[in-house]
TrEMBL record:
Main localization (coarse): secreted
Superkingdom: Bacteria
Designated name of the protein: SPOR domain-containing protein
Entry keywords, A to Z: Secreted, Signal
Gene Ontology MF annotations: peptidoglycan binding
GO CC annotations, alphabetized: extracellular region
InterPro entries listed in its UniProt record: Ig-like_fold, Sdr_B, SPOR-like_dom, SPOR-like_sf
PROSITE patterns per the UniProt record, alphabetical: SPOR
Coiled-coil region: none
Subcellular location per the Swiss-Prot or TrEMBL entry: Secreted
Organism per entry: Marinobacter orientalis
Amino acid sequence: MELYYNGTLIDFRVPDEDGRYRFEDLPLSYGRNDFRLVFNGPLGQTRTEEYRYNLDSSLVRPGEVNYNFVAHNDEFGQPGSIAQLEFGLTGKTTVSTSYVSAFTGGTERHYGTLGVRTFLGSYALDTSYIQANDGGRLWGVGVQTSVFGVALDADRFILQDFVSDEFLPVPDPVSIRDEVRLSGRLPLGAQTQLPVVLSVRRDQLESGEVETELNFRTSAYVRRTALTNTLSWQDRPSYDRLQGSLLVSRRFLGLGFRSVVNYDVIPGSDVTSVSLTGDYDLARGYRITGGGTHHLNNSVTLWNAGFSKSLGRYGLGVTGQYATDGDYGVGLRFFLGLGRDGRHTNWNLAAQPMAGYGVASVQVFVDENGNNVMDAGEVPVAGVGFLVNGAYREATTNEAGIARIERLSVNRYVDIAINQSSLIDPQWQPAIPGVSLMPRPGHVIKLDLPIRLTSEIDGTVFLLNEEAEEADRGVGGIQLQLLDESMEVVATTATAWDGFYIFSAIAPGQYWMQVNPEQIRKEGWETPGFRVVDVPTSGDFVSGVDFWLAKDLPASNKEAMKSRNVKAAGQTRAADKPSAIDHSWVSRQPEDNFTIQLSTVGSRSSLAHFLTEHGIARQAAVVESSHNGKVRYLVVYGSYANYGAARGAFLNLPDSLRKAEPWIRRFAEIQGMKG
């Protein structure tokens, strides 16, 4: 399999007999950290696993405490353990401490650590302190950022008698280490870019001597062949050395070929070793491998071959190797991963390790009532795929709407979302954008991701005839905006030649709709106001949300146009229509609903004049009350579930009604005033 980092081939591995593989010491830079594993099939097809990591995913949320404890035996059978505690100090700062026990140089050592990770603008800063039980100490500080599109990583470590797996016990140990890493792309022509990585490490030893190491890696993809070349220059007090390694990967006739050529440049130019490996997938999860490595310094060639089963309920591997110096070996491995299902009592068997990774058991269903919970009668959805940190994962839901997403990175936040391209019904849309969670080793997290039926909103924008109140034709090219309750534009569309428009895939909820104010200003039209549109959870379409436009009209026609827009706005809501002096209608409205009080008058004659003058006798309700022994009539308009909807209707009122200085009130206040 091949490992790509931000689209660049950086390494490849042949899995062990049990199908396991490991890529170690992979640095994370500021910006993109996209890793892609490519598994090649027998007919040239590929299966990929994508992993995306952001630096801020390592931060702990404010006030949260994360901890973990790990005990293990290393490859030599030596015991070790790690206990770690992390606390989210702020949204941009995490404090951590840990205890580590490990064998180094044949001696068991214990370490206590303290670290702070924070983000300041476009900079990620790390500070750390490590105290060993033998008195050794290490101080570290690091910064990661991006400069002109180039990722920059810089670190400094100061050591005092400090020994670890990285800093081994030697006669002249490191006292100060500085590291700088730059990664970016060099432009080659108008459409070609060459990925490059440059890293420099400078070690100052206790004796005062300095050791420097410089690595330069560049990659290319030519004629379906991936090539990566790495040059490494080492400057030591006793010698200088320049070495190189060329990686080549290509698939041909269903076979995957990979080659590594290691060579020296300084002090002498020579090829030191050449290896060629190949693999062929017999079926999904079944693979045969073979290859050889020739070492030119001792003329020994090592041949190897193997068969493995790495998918399904168990793993199996058989390997054999032979060296021309007479050494040989045969290996047989059987592997079984065992874990509980997150939603049932049954056990899951797997050919891949499970204990060291997190697992999410995700249930997808059509949420008919919008409560984000799968209730009785709601339908599960099969065949739904997922994105993990924005990258595609192969797992899909079964007939019960459940998928098991395995091999999640632990102890850092992971974002899981529905892959919208996998939804077969165009009206379906995720009810929530996704969920951020922190997987734990061997732990199954149960997660519900509801799908809601979306709707369409349609209508027509008319151009009002200058000679009459009736609209005579639709008008094309009108820009319409759909706003949420915070007045943010969430969708836009434009009318066709006949004035007809459609907003598609609109999630349930309440929205405001308007003609683009900039277009109204530019064309000099009279403002047609807002429409308040309720999109139901049933997926039913909302039709007939119309607008009337006009300009350069006499005052009487302007009021007519305004009245038409107000009437159209009222048609977007299913309302319980009132009639004048209708106490029963007012009583039926929920106390928490809002209404618009248009005016207060002191006599029936004044009331009749007001209703007739504004043409609202069939739309308004009148509440009769008394104050200091005098009868008063309150004229109210509409019933709205929230203040935003009432505000939208308020802004749609004709200028003649706005002059009466109406205001928005709750029904609870008005219902208590009835006489």
